[in-house]
# Entry
Amino acid sequence: MNNTLLWYSTRGAGAVSLVLLSAVVVLGILNVHRFETAGWPRFLTQGLHRNVSLLALVFLGVHIVTAVVDPFTSLGWLAAIVPFSSYYRTFWLGLGVVAFELLLAITVSSLIRRQIGLRVWRAIHWLAYGCWPVAAAHGLGTGTDSGQLWMWLVVGGCVGAVGFSVAARLLLPPRDPLSEPRGDFRQRVTRGPSR
Amino acid sequence: MLGLLEAAGLTGRGGASFPTASKWRAVAERAGGDAVVIANGAEGEPLSRKDAMLMEKRPHLVIDGALIAAESVGAGRAILYAGQEHRRAVLAMRRAIRERPSFERGRLELVEAPKSYIAGEESAAVHFLNQGVAAPTAIPPRPFESGVGGRPTLVQNVETLAQAALIARGRPAGSLLLTLGGAVARPGVVEVPIGATVAEVLELSGRHGQPRAVLMGGYFGGWVGFEEASSMTLDPHRLRAAGGSLGCGVVWVLQENADAVGATARVMARLASESAAQCGPCFFGLRSLADACARIASRLPQANDLHNLRHWSDMVQGRGACKHPDGAVTFLRSALRLFEAEFAAAARAA
# Structure
């Protein structure tokens, strides 16, 4: 009975993690586009992006720990740390490990952004675009519920939301209300050709 | 040289009063002989003239300091970065470089800084020398880690370098340059011994009516009541211990019957217009603060203006890539504290 509980927890936490990670990606892109309406101020997007990502880490923690300690799977901790080292579904499970480690890098670099500088942080943050598809592929490839209709709906919703946001990110130039005054300022302080 | 600086207790005269020896050591530790020294004479602070005056009257002392700094930190080049609006200072520096022997001349370069409040901010100076844009950049890396051409770079105010040159000659670092202005009989640059009081300095320059308050340190400094300012000792270490700062050495006097709210609003308007428009909280925040100040000063306040000045100051603080917004709200808070009654009366005027 205990085993079944762990097994259900692994599956449930995995599905929730995918939903939360999708929300984090969508919020991150909304943030880049400085989305706001009268009822949705910008700090809400920023705060949600930050806090939902931490919440996703919690669910991922549950997902991983319950999977590893489940005596039925006997995966071992090494399989949760070293990608593609698991005897069980080596490839698909390995994708999950890769996604988790990318997410850790993205989160830790954000927490120490002041120390590492904006440029390094930004380069690492771009890994999010690699992390999310890998996580989604892991869910579809190894998920016990991936054949179920409800799971298809969940995954479909996530793919749709992220796909739509990424398309918007690519097609719409990010709104930058500072571009005009910044241009004016730069004109004032930029070295002329005379020097 | 580092030991001499340390013993003399020399601190930076650009505004931050950072211990000079520590700064030089940080660059020296990273440099393998390929560091760069920037003698910072951009002096964008509207109330300050002391760097321009020093470069104009004692250009060789500044160059001596820059070369000594280059020698000490292991730099092959020293760039003299002088504000282009300080024409006489630029000409004097140019002439002085020509007068140096060729082995020194080869290591010196004069670059004119664009006229802008933040052109002298150290990352802006480095950005200008690298890419020709005098706007601050995100830190890290700080200039001492990666500056001009990616090399460790010492950005040091010209007065600090001149003091270092005097220390190298065995003279104690016993003096400060101040720019006196506002309601004084003889405004201008004065050299005073460290430890003089503001009252003594103002006595020298001739009082001009009954002063109300003193703006210490310029636009990035703060208002101090005249009584309190009079007894202040002009000593970077003691001021720092007392929670104040010498800033860039501006002592600007506001007369008894002057419009303190209006004077504050004018400074805020200037600081807002000097935002590089790179960080939203700085650009929009300072503009909102300046507009609210202007409405209060013109006795046409909106309902929450006074409350918002405090509230928005908290929101802006620490949210810029550089310290421009922080300097502006430090100044504003000093005004709200000292001129609390005037602000309250003006904000009720509607």
